[in-house]
Every structure is written in structure tokens, then in C-alpha cells.
């Protein structure tokens, strides 16, 4: 390979961090939205966006260089056609998606810790920001607007299976462990009116879930608590649901989560593991990039059902029912293994056959 001027330029361009951060800062400050009404000076925009005028002026000039903004002789800025999708009300808006304070934006910014991931195999986010992704998103108030704007809102990833394929008639109380903004629990309780339930999640999402449950008119049957699934969990529920949780955690930490569910469930309760399988299909454009991104941002994006079964076994659980699987979702019901529950080894009838 020869090193010539253009190779150097290409490499420097590939490694540039100013450009993505400028676009993401512009998205977080909603500059495109502020400029949708009329042209504005740096001073006006700084006031609207709550920014430092001097620094914002430099960002604005760079956004002109990138072709996202235009500037007139009086120092007033307007949005170009290229910048339009940064508006939150644009039909194909990417404003929230690219925001440095958005949920996806924050994952992408964590890629600054990629070197740590490649050296250790650990996720990159804590290396970049000093705390794990969900911990940061749930404890810093700056992310509340993003949690509200980008929240689940609808069940996804074949979560229909959880609601329809599992025999809920035997259960009365369900704890949705890591239940996010309550979307899944609300749907579950709406479709199975005999059920009562609680979302357990970290503080920001627990607050949002509580509000959404009340708005859904389910406050008499449901609520939300702020707690960590790495601590002992509340007892007294029939089903401890883990939907789309374990992919974010190493085997060791997944076993801790499962064990905490098992201990709270006791001999009579069940742990329903509804894991998500995030695979990059062969032939996907930029597949290598996507695989690298997934592996650096979450330790185990896709465990096999056998691997999940094995995790359960390591947590002192045995499979009592195996539900249908789709390419993106599987269902396993566990209960305490006999040895863990009673100290004796004897076969038991599956709760759901
Ligand atoms: C990938 S989301 C899955 C959300 C939801 N269960 C679903 O099926 O859509 C992971 C969830 O785990 C929550 N979480 C992360 N760490 C947690 C912890 N230590 N304790 C409780 N919840 C946690 C996150 O806040 C987030 O809501």
C-alpha cells in the first residue's frame, strides 16, 4: 500500500471527531427547530438554546462550513435543505436520534471507549463516561426529555409472544423487572384484566412508568418502584418477568439478576425470561460496523436458548416451560431447582405445559 496525500486525507477524515460532535451538539440544542421560523443571529440562538454565545458562534460557523446552515452578511443564520431533517417536526426527522443527549446518541458517543472494549471485551460506555449506560440515563435528569420522547410507547421485538403465548391464567401478580416506561406491563394488564403488576426500574424510568400507568387508568392494579435488579427484589409476585434484559449484561451479572429473581420468587413463584436476540443478518449493509457497534455497546446481544437455559441453571433455576421462539424473541419459564428450593432432588411437573 502506498501512503500518498489522498490516503492521509481519507484517514484523517475517517478519524475526525469534531464533525459528528458538532452535528450531535446542534441536534441536542435544537438549532434547526429554533431556526425554522426566521433567521437568527448567534446571540438570539444562544438565548433560545441556552448556550454560550461565543462557543455557539464557532459551532454555527462550522455548521455553515458543513452545509447544514447558511449565513447572511448581517450574521443571521438559516437552515439549508441538508439541515432540514434535524428539525423535530420534519417528516424524516433525525434530530432526536442524533442528539448528544438522546438515548441512541448517548450510546453512540460511548464508542469513544471502543479501545477499552477491544482490549478487555467489556462494554465501552463506562470506560467513556465513568458509569454504565442505563445507570447514567436513569440517574441524570438531562436524559428525562429523551426518555419521554424516545420511550418504548408500543410493544416491540415480538413482545406479543409474552402476552399471548404464556399462560397468565395461573398468575395474579407480576413484577416487570427492568420494565422501562411501563409499555409492556400496561399492554399485559389491559389484555389480562385479572392481573396486577409492578414495574421495577431505575429512578428516571420508574417515575415515567408510574405516570404512564396512572394515565392508562391502571393505578388500581399497577404501579412502579425505583430499585435495582442487582439488589434483593420485592417478594410476593407470582411471575418475575425479564423482557429484553440480559443482553446488556455479562454471564456473571446475568446470573446475579436471575438469582435475585429466583430468591424473590421462592418455591411458588416463576421467572419468565423473555430474552431478545439481536442478530445482524448476513448481507446487511455495513454488517461489520453494526456487529462492532453492538458488541461494544452490549455484552451479549444474542444468546442462544441453550445458553439462556444454562444461565438459569447457574442461578439455581430449572426450566418449567419453554415457549415458542421467533428470530428475535424466546420465552423460557423457570422455577427454583428442587435442590435450591427444598434441598432434595426430585422431578416436578411443569407449571405450564
Ligand atoms: C433493553 S431495556 C428493556 C426494557 C423492557 N423490559 C422491554 O422489554 O422493552 C433494559 C431495561 O433495564 C433497565 N435497567 C438497567 N439496569 C437496571 C438495574 N440495575 N435495575 C433495574 N432496571 C435496570 C433499564 O432502565 C431499561 O429499562
Automatic annotation (TrEMBL):
Alphabetical list of SUPFAM superfamilies matching this protein: S-adenosyl-L-methionine-dependent methyltransferases (SSF53335), Winged helix' DNA-binding domain (SSF46785)
Record InterPro entries: COMT-like, COMT_C, COMT_dimerisation, SAM-dependent_MTases_sf, WH-like_DNA-bd_sf, WH_DNA-bd_sf
Source species, domain of life: Bacteria
PANTHER family (alphabetical): O-METHYLTRANSFERASE CICE, PUTATIVE (AFU_ORTHOLOGUE AFUA_4G14580)-RELATED
PROSITE patterns linked: SAM_OMT_II (PS51683)
A matching Pfam family: Methyltransf_2
Domain O-methyltransferase C-terminal: from-to ranges: 117-317
GO molecular function: O-methyltransferase activity; protein dimerization activity
This protein's UniProt keywords: Methyltransferase, S-adenosyl-L-methionine, Transferase
GO biological process: methylation
Protein name: O-methyltransferase
Organism taxonomic ancestry: Bacteria, Bacillati, Actinomycetota, Actinomycetes, Streptosporangiales
O-methyltransferase dimerisation domain segment(s): 17-84
